[in-house]
């Protein structure tokens, strides 16, 4: 049985090709994935991300609970609306999920976690919360639309009322604000400027239509994947999972090691890995000749073997890029097994495009 | 239902074949195949003068989704390839039966055409997919 988001009818209206995405019937594209990709890099596109799970955390222990639950430290959040990206780890130091935490007050936070991991996330969050005075509330009554691209903010502004425009005016990256009936955040999964907008299910189709009328182009999961990969953003289940350390998934920057006495789940395991430099690492691969690097392919490096975790053709760059988990001994080049042949690739930092421009 | 022109012959592996006269046949992939593959990003073609057997993999259509082998529907010599696809692989998506053709073969044995499907046969074969 597949679930549908409240925008399902709008997708069909826009000519979407629908696919099963972890139990959700979602648009893979509306005709051309590559054209949708370019729309986001050059103008403005929108994604239905209503399948993602919103969880509100409230209570006197909310801060202490999150300091236990995730690898980053919510104590860094002091300005209302500020957001933080991090991972929830298991005791072995594997990533249960990655998530964004929005801070409102020290007793009130909002989490956005992945849809494919919803059930295990809620079970884990609930189990950890049992020792704290907090209420954990899933918010299925909300839909979410991500509007992304260099013209995303300007086009969105045309459909906001004066108060909402004032609320988002000059908002820095990685902030969120409740503006009338919308929660508007300067977050995203594309490497472009834009908003992620949380809207009540009852108003979602109307908001989608207004954005469409304002010239924002619908974009599907296909473009979402090539955009996030170019931006070097991880996809849970591909680039990391419960068996992968955040240190092997380019998530070291999402871990707060100080203060040392903060005992977050998984700390002991990843502290040991960090001291021993024993984990693999995530790198970027670039193939400037013909062909497309694909997830699952073997990567041969100096001193060992690794694996491509995500690979694609990059529409912005015109050649293929990939994320790969490899031994730390890797040099500046590697070889990838492609269609039974070994092909030379360049090794770069795991990030390829930002704000429409190559950063290789 | 995707477009399946009645004047062409088809292989179950989703190539189409059009007779151009003088034993020369143009080969491409069907509308259905390009729909399955999605946006095309690279097309690797054989070289002119290559000898191919019927059923031999002789080209690759690589899309955002997957790399797919293209099989020679009949045996013969490659006499021309569609060089425009080098810079515009999306032509295969936009005009699968026209400008998106892949290569032309001079047939070595025209009786091999009899092994291919007509439009109705091909339509039935993709219904079974």
TrEMBL record, chain A:
Coiled coil: none annotated. Keywords: Aminotransferase, Methyltransferase, Transferase. Pfam families: GCV_T, GCV_T_C. Gene3D superfamilies: Aminomethyltransferase beta-barrel domains, Aminomethyltransferase fragment, Probable tRNA modification gtpase trme, domain 1. NCBIfam families: gcvT, PRK00389.1. The keyword Protease does not apply. The lineage of its organism: Bacteria, Pseudomonadati, Pseudomonadota, Gammaproteobacteria, Alteromonadales. SUPFAM superfamilies: Aminomethyltransferase beta-barrel domain, Folate-binding domain. The glycine cleavage system catalyzes the degradation of glycine. The gene is gcvT. The glycine cleavage system is composed of four proteins: P, T, L and H. Belongs to the GcvT family. HAMAP family: GcvT. This is Aminomethyltransferase. It comes from Pseudoalteromonas maricaloris. Residues 281-353 form the Aminomethyltransferase C-terminal domain. One of its GO terms (cellular component) is cytosol. It catalyses: N(6)-[(R)-S(8)-aminomethyldihydrolipoyl]-L-lysyl-[protein] + (6S)-5,6,7,8-tetrahydrofolate = N(6)-[(R)-dihydrolipoyl]-L-lysyl-[protein] + (6R)-5,10-methylene-5,6,7,8-tetrahydrofolate + NH4(+). Its EC number is 2.1.2.10. The keyword Transferase applies. Residues 7-258 form the GCVT N-terminal domain. It is an enzyme of class 2 (transferase).
TrEMBL record, chain B:
PROSITE patterns: BIOTINYL_LIPOYL, LIPOYL. Keywords: Lipoyl. Binds 1 lipoyl cofactor covalently. Its cofactor is (R)-lipoate. GO terms for biological process: glycine decarboxylation via glycine cleavage system; protein lipoylation. InterPro entries: 2-oxoA_DH_lipoyl-BS, Biotin_lipoyl, GCV_H, GCV_H/Fam206, GCV_H_sub, Single_hybrid_motif. Residues 24-106 form the Lipoyl-binding domain. The modification N6-lipoyllysine is found at residue 65. One of its GO terms (cellular component) is glycine cleavage complex. The glycine cleavage system is composed of four proteins: P, T, L and H. NCBIfam families: gcvH (TIGR00527), PRK01202.1 (NF002270). The glycine cleavage system catalyzes the degradation of glycine. The H protein shuttles the methylamine group of glycine from the P protein to the T protein. Belongs to the GcvH family. PANTHER family: GLYCINE CLEAVAGE SYSTEM H PROTEIN, GLYCINE CLEAVAGE SYSTEM H PROTEIN-RELATED. This is Glycine cleavage system H protein. It comes from Pseudoalteromonas maricaloris. The lineage of its organism: Bacteria, Pseudomonadati, Pseudomonadota, Gammaproteobacteria, Alteromonadales.
């Amino acid at each position: 049985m597949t679930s549908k988001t409240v925008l399902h009818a709008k997708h069909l209206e826009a000519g979407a090709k629908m696919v099963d995405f972890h139990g959700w019937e979602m648009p893979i594209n509306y005709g051309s994935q590559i054209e949708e990709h370019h729309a986001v890099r050059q103008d403005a596109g929108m994604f239905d991300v209503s399948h993602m799970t919103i969880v509100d955390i409230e209570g006197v222990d909310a801060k202490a609970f999150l300091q236990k639950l995730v690898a980053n430290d919510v104590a860094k959040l002091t300005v209302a609306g500020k957001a933080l990206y991090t991972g929830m780890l298991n005791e072995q130091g594997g990533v249960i999920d990655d998530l964004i935490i929005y801070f409102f007050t020290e007793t009130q936070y909002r989490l956005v976690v992945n849809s494919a991991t919803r059930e295990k996330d809620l079970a884990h969050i609930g189990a950890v919360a049992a020792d704290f005075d907090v209420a954990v509330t899933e918010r299925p009554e909300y839909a979410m639309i991500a509007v992304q691209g260099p013209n995303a903010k300007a086009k969105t502004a045309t459909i906001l009322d004066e108060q909402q425009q004032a609320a988002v005016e000059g908002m820095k990256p990685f902030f969120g604000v409740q503006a009338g009936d919308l929660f508007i955040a300067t977050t995203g999964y594309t490497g472009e400027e834009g908003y992620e907008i949380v809207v009540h299910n009852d108003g979602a189709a109307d908001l989608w239509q207004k954005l469409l009328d304002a010239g924002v182009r619908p974009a599907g999961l296909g473009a979402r994947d090539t955009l996030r990969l170019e931006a070097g953003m991880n996809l849970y289940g591909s680039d990391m999972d419960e068996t992968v350390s955040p240190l092997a998934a380019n998530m070291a920057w999402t871990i707060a090691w100080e203060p040392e006495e903060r005992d977050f789940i998984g700390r002991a395991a990843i502290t040991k890995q960090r001291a021993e430099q024993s984990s693999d690492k995530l790198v970027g691969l670039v193939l400037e000749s013909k062909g497309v690097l694909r997830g699952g392919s073997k990567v041969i490096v100096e001193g060992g073997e690794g694996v491509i975790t995500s690979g694609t053709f990059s529409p912005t760059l015109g050649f293929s890029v990939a994320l790969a988990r490899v031994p730390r001994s890797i040099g500046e080049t590697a070889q990838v097994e492609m269609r039974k042949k070994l092909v030379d690739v360049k090794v770069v930092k795991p990030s390829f495009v930002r704000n429409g421009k190559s950063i290789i | 239902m995707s477009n399946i022109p009645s004047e062409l012959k088809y292989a179950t592996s989703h190539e189409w074949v059009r007779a151009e006269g003088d034993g020369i046949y143009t080969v491409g992939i069907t509308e259905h195949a390009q729909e399955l593959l999605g946006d095309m990003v690279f097309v690797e073609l054989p070289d002119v003068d290559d000898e191919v057997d019927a059923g031999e993999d002789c080209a690759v259509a690589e899309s955002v989704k997957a790399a797919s082998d293209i099989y020679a529907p009949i045996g013969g010599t490659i006499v021309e390839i569609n060089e425009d696809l080098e810079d515009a692989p999306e032509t295969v998506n936009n005009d699968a039966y026209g400008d998106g053709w892949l290569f032309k073969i001079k047939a070595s044995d025209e009786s091999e055409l009899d092994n291919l499907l007509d439009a109705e046969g091909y339509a039935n074969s993709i219904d079974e997919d």
